[in-house]
Amino acid sequence: MTDISVAVLGATGYTGAELIRLIGEHPHFRIRRLAAHSQAGKRAGQALPGLGGDLADMELMPADAPWPDDVQLVFTALPHGAAAGSVRRALEAGCRVVDLSADFRHQSAENYKAAYGADHPHPELLPEAVFGLAELAREQVATSRLTANPGCYPTSVLLPLVPLLRAGVLDAERIIVDSKSGTSGAGRSAKTELLYCEINEGVRAYGLPRHRHAWEMEEWARAFSGVEARIQFVPHILPMTRGMLSTLHLSGRDPGRWREILHAAYATEPFVRMLAEGELPTTKGVAGSNRCDIGVAVTGPDSAVVVSCIDNLIKGAAGQAVQNANIMFGLPETAGLSAIALWP
Ligand SMILES: NC(=O)c1ccc[n+]([C@@H]2O[C@H](COP(=O)([O-])OP(=O)(O)OC[C@H]3O[C@@H](n4cnc5c(N)ncnc54)[C@H](OP(=O)(O)O)[C@@H]3O)[C@@H](O)[C@H]2O)c1
Fold first, then answer.
1. Nearest to 230 by CA among 173, 169, 176
2. Cβ of 45 below 6 Å from ligand 1
3. Whose CA is nearest to atom 31 of ligand 1?
4. Residue with CA at minimum distance from ligand 1 atom 1
5. Topology (CATH level 3) of domain 153-314
6. Are 92 and 43 in contact (CB under 8 A)?
7. How far is the C-alpha of 256 from the C-alpha of 271, rounded, in Å?
8. No. of H helices and E strands in the chain?
9. Whose CA is closest to 155, among 54, 261, 290?
10. Cα 9 to middle of ligand 1, angstroms
11. Distance 77 CA to ligand 1 centre (A)
């Protein structure tokens, strides 16, 4: 198979840097264009200290500069709102796109506005966007021109939640999700609340009363399962660089069977691992890998907590984006992706 030329827009951000690292090891994807915004004009190695080799010498172009003709695949790792215009230009140039932002994660402009408080910049593209939670939408991703990569929190929540909703065992009216994210989840731009003195040795909830990912979770829980779920979602930010842990407090019937239901749903999946009874996942156990680990603890005759862990920058962003691109180009889904974590 011939190589596939790739552009990464938003190359200087945390997810952009992860995309470059993963694509650098990919057997078929080759980077032809790296683009940035305020750092356009620099060499990539000046903006990204981890880069080496030829890529470090590549000039960072502005996101809206025309890209080389042979580019077939564009990853947009840009802030929501800014991504949609670049996505449209890429589609017009005949490329296929995996968008890591929230711009195409909702099924309607109304849903986008409810979550993000702004009019959608390109609502005409929403009908063709596929929500790329690969394990649950593989066939749709395979034929899509535009795949919307799910948010990190929704990935960590929907993977354990949807099979249980489909099985009809949950009280869908009372789902409480408590999530923790490493600081890279907030991106690389300077923010006072992310200064070392503000974040170090502390933990805090944020985004309440309703974080924007709550809309994404409820919308796709309904779309994938047909069940109207009400999710009370509380995210927290922690002084760790990467990692995400979501604890789902669930009630319903037969909680002793829930582990088995999840195991059956994901038994053949390369990137979802059900842990053995009595085991719970850790952020260290998935760091640097494209894996989601899930554990179940039965807490009563009609209740259990389900805990899931991902690396927010990999399965929650760049890794899942490469997984989706592999599916879109008919490549082995695992190409360029490791299921083995960086441990310790
Ligand atoms: N961080 C995560 O864990 C995570 C997980 C899932 C999804 N996401 C989503 O992925 C996207 C990228 O996130 P990130 O954490 O990588 O962000 P980030 O670290 O803040 O990086 C943002 C990137 O976009 C560029 N940029 C900023 N403003 C721009 C504009 N107006 N037009 C074009 N480019 C612009 C920046 O370029 P300069 O450096 O040159 O200014 C930088 O390359 C966001 O939509 C985010 O919500 C992030």
1. 173
2. no
3. 82
4. 185
5. Dihydrodipicolinate Reductase; domain 2 (3.30.360)
6. no
7. 24
8. 11, 14
9. 290
10. 9
11. 5
CATH code assigned to 4-128? 3.40.50.720
**Residue 150: is the preceding peptide bond cis (ω within 30°)?**
no
Is-contact 311 289, C-beta < 8 A?
Answer: yes
State both tokens at 31. Answer: 């980077």
In this structure, what token pair is assigned to residue 102? 């929230």
Question: Ligand 1 centre and the CA of 83: distance in Å?
Answer: 9
Atom of ligand 1 nearest to the CA of 10: 43
Q: Catalytic site residue 197?
A: no
Per-residue pLDDT of the chain (344 residues; tens, 9 = 90+): 789 999 999 999 999 999 999 999 999 999 999 999 999 999 999 999 999 889 999 999 999 898 888 999 999 999 999 999 999 999 999 999 999 999 999 999 999 999 999 999 999 999 999 999 999 999 999 999 999 999 999 999 999 999 999 999 999 999 999 999 999 999 999 999 999 999 999 999 999 999 999 999 999 999 999 999 999 999 999 999 999 999 999 999 999 999 999 999 999 999 999 999 999 999 999 999 999 999 999 999 999 999 999 999 999 999 999 999 999 999 999 999 988 999 98
Residue 290: closest CA among 268, 262, 319 = 319
- Ligand 1 within 6 A of 78 CB? yes
The segment(s) of the chain belonging to CATH 3.30.360.10 are 153-314
Domain with CATH 3.40.50.720 in the chain: 4-128
For residue 68, the 8-state DSSP code is P
